[in-house]
Design a protein that fits this description.
The complex is a heterodimer. Chain A is an alpha/beta fold. Chain A has 2 domains: about 20-80; about 90-180, Glutaredoxin (3-Layer(aba) Sandwich), CATH 3.40.30. Chain A is built from 7 helices and 5 strands. Chain A has helices spanning about 20-30, 40-50, 55-65, 70-80, 100-105, 105-115, 160-170, and strands spanning about 90-95, 130-135, 150, 155, 180. The longest helix of chain A is centred in the last third of the chain and has 12 residues, at about 160-170. Chain B is built from 21 helices and 26 strands. In chain B, the strands form 7 sheets. Chain B has a 7-stranded mixed sheet with strand order 14-13-24-23-22-15-16, sandwiched between helices. In chain B, strand 1 and strand 2 (about 10) form a beta hairpin. In chain B, helix 8 runs parallel beside helix 18 and helix 11 packs parallel to helix 14 (about 455-465). Mean pLDDT of chain B is about 90; it is low at about 690-695. The chains are: A alpha/beta, B alpha/beta. The interface of A and B includes residues 2, 6, 8 and 71 of A.
């Protein structure tokens, strides 16, 4: 895991949009005046969304002013959490889980699709600028491995072909359905139940 | 007091102590990397693990655990040994084995503790990690692969130095210490992180690859860069000062020193006056001591005493000032002054001292700064104020220019008008001071070294009087000096005698032809070009402004080259020790004055430094008690300053460039680079380091 680093100062300024600023003020009321920095993680998260999916020096400067923190203290938080990106991400930001269960179920193939369809290297924008991808640690959907997260949605039960289709569909601007791509509900087994199948187990409800 | 047992030894401890402190009371050494007495507890190196009976069945970090009554602590059980072995092995997994090329080698906590508490091998076969070096400015060299993430540097810069530039980014194996956007660490105290770093990650850039600790001779002495009188250790090899380190003195500098104190040493080798010079046909030419003295004797022959003047500089020792005063007395000259900046200060003694004492700042509960920028005039006093402020959040008001002092300051006003309001009780801060139990004020040379200085001093005394700053057990009236020599000079009476001229009048006297001979004892901070009509004798260590204006140059010793007495701004008499001999033909300053007095036929009444000091102590008994601040409270506020009209010009600090305040600093390349980077904000291309084997 590499740290996402901010290495360049940003000449531009960042500011919350008016409704977001309203929201931020409400959040600040929850804390005593000398504990404003408690808000740093939610504010960074919202700022990242408003800043096109990543945090740069301008965001750090804005929040350090707003929360009375030194810039380095904000940056420490940014660099600690992998959910904060420090380089521009695509409009469709693909996070491929490559932790053991997904890897056993073929996450290498998914990574290969991303390399071919998006960009050879992780954390780089695709040629059309619409996509970027990165490897992440376990996203907690191991029962439906392999899986990826695209923006706010999980896409599960993937394989090479399905992943390619999803990316193509997104590139054409079509809607895609999140969740299991093999039609199962939640993490129930494919086909018949193989355990807990005795109806007597469920007698209590009768 | 509660008791606890450490390895079967019962010890009494003060409530609130940590397990580590209790172990130390019992005489047990606990290894540690991240813990430091003067910084907050981080508890992240895990080296200080001990076993506590009755607690959870695992080792406990002794630095962060408060000791409970009747606790049974073990530091020598198999569990503790195994824990230390394990932590040490983990630390060494990613630490490079480059001790032979590491500047910390020989004085490295990791090296020492690996020898004392580690195991002899490693089971780690993978590649070690590598971390890019960071550029922290011209003073601190980084080899970040060696870093063990104790975060002492982060805590020091944030808590003590008061600048939040450094931080720990990332986590786990990717954690790194860095400054945000590679900013240089802009603090006058930044060099202390070099001492704090337990490994060779942060080392001294100017000292890189210069020497090994075991080949250095260590001399304990006193610093003269400012009037704090920081206690230092000068490390020398042969005839050269290789580096300067702090020495512990809780009352003065704790264990920190300023960057100027620490990195001045290259200035001690450059621009040195190593032989006498005499001006012949408008050009300074090398001469012998006899020729130099003869030239002076000839000039002084038959000259009226009132036509001779002497000015003592900012870094001269008490002995040489006493000798100078003796010489001028024997010549019958009342024109002596040690206040190069023209500060309107004079005795009695407590009228010009930092009476609260430096350690006493921590007891204060309100502070008024007048015409001073302690961050640049006395960085360690500023650190003490910050410490007191951080502990008690005391109100601090400032009258004078606006400075970033690293703590919250109420900016009250710019100059004398505001001070008058406070003295008259018409200002809201007056009641803040009045309501405080132990209020104090610090008046700087920026308020005193001006025409209305005496009147401002008297206004400050009025503030102290009306707000109750001086009582039987508290003295909150403080003068902050900028020159190491100033208090001793005032103690020894180096102020104009009856009918005598001060520095400003000496300069006009020279221009008007009333004064024909001027003796500059290390005095470089005056307008020396105005001395062109006089015969100027310069005695000092460096070829700076004074020597350029001189007709005779007498090479003296710098502060590391003589056994001498200095008095700091608190009035604390401290003894400096000689670390190296003066270069070339240069001599100790008192002996030059003694020899000259013989040549002109008015020998001073002592022949050795011992006799001189004995005579000085007889005349001024307080020079006999070393290392303590004056006791008793004899300040009579009514006698401080002279009431009168004040101007309306705002106060400005006399220190505009912290790194270039004296001749030694101006000779130093390191200081010149610091000034360029930190004061003038030039880019740091020059500090880029050579790579690979080219170090």
């Amino acid at each position: 895991m590499a740290i996402s680093k901010i290495t360049k100062d940003s000449a531009e300024a960042f500011a919350f949009s008016a409704p977001k600023l309203e929201w931020a003020k409400k959040q600040l009321e929850k804390y005593p005046a000398d504990r404003k920095q408690s808000c740093v993680i939610p504010f960074l998260w919202e700022a990242q969304k408003e800043n096109g999916g990543y945090v740069d020096a301008a965001v750090v400067r804005y929040l350090s002013d707003m929360l009375d923190m030194a810039e380095i203290r904000v940056y420490e938080v940014v660099s600690f959490y992998t959910m904060f990106n420090t380089a521009p991400v695509g409009e469709h930001f693909v996070q491929v889980c490559t932790t053991t269960p997904c890897w056993l179920r073929g996450s290498d193939e998914i990574v290969k699709v991303c390399k071919n369809k998006i960009a050879r290297a992780a954390n780089t924008l695709s040629e059309d600028g619409k996509f970027s991808w990165m490897e992440v640690e376990c996203l907690g959907a191991c029962a439906n491995a392999p899986m990826v997260q695209i923006n706010d949605n999980y896409f599960e039960d993937l394989d090479e072909t399905i992943m390619a289709e999803i990316l193509d569909a997104l590139a054409e601007g079509k809607d895609v359905t999140p969740g299991s791509q093999k039609g199962r509900k939640s993490s129930e087994p494919f086909g018949e139940l193989t355990s807990l199948s005795d109806p007597a187990l469920y007698g209590g409800a009768e | 007091m509660p008791t606890a047992t450490v390895d079967g030894i019962e010890v009494e401890y003060e409530p609130g102590m940590t397990v580590m402190q209790v172990c130390e009371l019992a005489g047990r050494e606990i290894p540690r990397f991240c813990y430091h007495e003067r910084l907050s507890v981080a508890g992240n190196c895990r080296m200080c693990l001990v076993e506590v009976e009755g607690g959870p069945p695992k080792p406990a970090a002794s630095c962060a655990m408060p000791c409970a009554p009747d606790m049974k602590i073990h530091t020598d059980t198999p569990m503790v040994k195994k824990a230390r072995d394990g932590v040490m092995e983990f630390l060494l997994i990613n630490h490079p084995l480059d001790c032979p090329i590491c500047d910390q080698g020989g004085e490295c906590d990791l090296q020492d503790q690996a020898m004392a508490f580690g195991v002899d091998g490693s089971r780690y076969d993978e590649n070690k990690r590598a971390v890019t070096n960071k550029d922290l400015g011209p003073l601190i060299r980084t080899i970040m692969t060696r870093c063990i993430h104790c975060t002492r540097c982060v805590r020091f810069t944030t808590e003590v130095a008061g600048i939040s530039d450094m931080g720990l980014i990332g986590r786990g194996e990717s954690a790194e210490i860095t400054s945000y956007l590679d900013k240089a660490v802009d603090s006058e105290l930044s060099g202390n992180v070099i001492d704090l770093c337990p490994v060779g990650a942060l080392t001294s850039k100017p000292y890189a690859f210069k020497a090994r600790p075991w080949e250095l001779k260590k001399t304990e002495t006193v610093d003269v860069m400012d009037a704090v009188g920081s206690n230092i250790r000068v490390d020398t090899r042969g005839r050269e000062v290789m580096r300067i380190l702090p020495r512990l003195n809780e009352d003065v500098n704790e264990e920190w020193i300023s960057d100027k104190t620490r990195f001045i040493w290259d200035g001690l080798r450059r621009q040195r006056l190593d032989k006498p010079y005499v001006r012949r046909d408008g050009k300074l030419e090398p001469a012998t001591w006899d020729e130099a003295f003869a030239a002076i004797a000839e000039k002084l022959k038959g000259l009226e005493g009132s036509k001779v003047a002497a000015i003592a500089g900012d870094m001269v020792c008490a002995e040489s000032m006493y000798a100078l005063k003796g010489l001028m007395d024997s010549l019958g000259s009342p024109n002596v002054d040690c206040r190069q900046d023209g500060a309107k200060l004079k005795g009695p003694r407590s009228n010009y001292l930092f009476n609260t004492t430096i350690a006493g700042i921590e007891d204060a509960d309100a502070l008024l700064l007048i015409g001073t920028n302690p961050r640049h005039e006395a960085p360690l006093i500023n650190a003490r104020i910050r410490k007191a402020w951080a502990a008690s959040n005391m109100p601090i008001g400032n009258v004078g220019a606006v400075h970033d002092l690293t703590y919250d300051v109420d900016q009250l006003g710019a100059g004398p008008a505001t001070l008058k309001d406070i003295a008259d009780g018409n200002h809201s801060f007056a009641s803040v001071l009045k309501n405080a139990k132990r209020p104090m004020l610090i008046i700087g040379q920026g308020a005193l070294a001006r025409a209305d200085g005496a009147a401002i001093l008297s206004l400050a005394a009025k503030v102290a009087e009306t707000t109750g700053m001086v009582s039987e057990d508290w003295n909150g009236f403080n003068v902050l000096h900028t020159a190491a020599a100033r208090v001793a000079g005032l103690d020894l009476g180096l102020v104009p005698g009856e009918g005598g001229h001060d520095v400003a009048n000496i300069l006009t006297g020279v221009e008007g032809g009333d004064i024909e001979v001027v003796y500059l004892l290390g005095a470089d901070e005056i307008e020396t070009r105005r001395l062109s009509r006089a015969f100027v004798i310069y005695q000092g260590s460096h070829g700076d402004a004074g020597a350029h204006a001189a007709d005779v140059v007498l090479p003296g010793a710098a502060y590391t080259e003589k056994n001498a007495i200095w008095v700091n701004t608190e009035g604390r008499v401290q003894h400096g020790r000689r670390a190296v001999y003066p270069p070339g033909e240069a001599k100790e300053d008192w002996s030059i004055l003694r020899a000259l007095s013989g040549v002109i036929g008015k020998p001073l009444p002592w022949k050795t430094q011992g006799e001189l000091v004995a005579a000085m102590i007889e005349a001024h008994p307080h020079f006999g008690s070393a290392n303590t601040a004056p006791e008793g409270n004899s300040l009579d506020l009514g006698s401080v300053g002279v009431s009168g009209a004040v101007g309306d010009m705002g106060f400005a600090s006399p220190v505009t460039d912290f790194y270039l305040t004296n001749p030694i600093a101006r000779a130093s390349e390191i200081m010149a680079e610091c000034s360029a980077v930190f004061v003038h904000g030039q880019n740091r291309a020059k500090t880029a380091e050579a790579s690979g084997t080219n170090g």
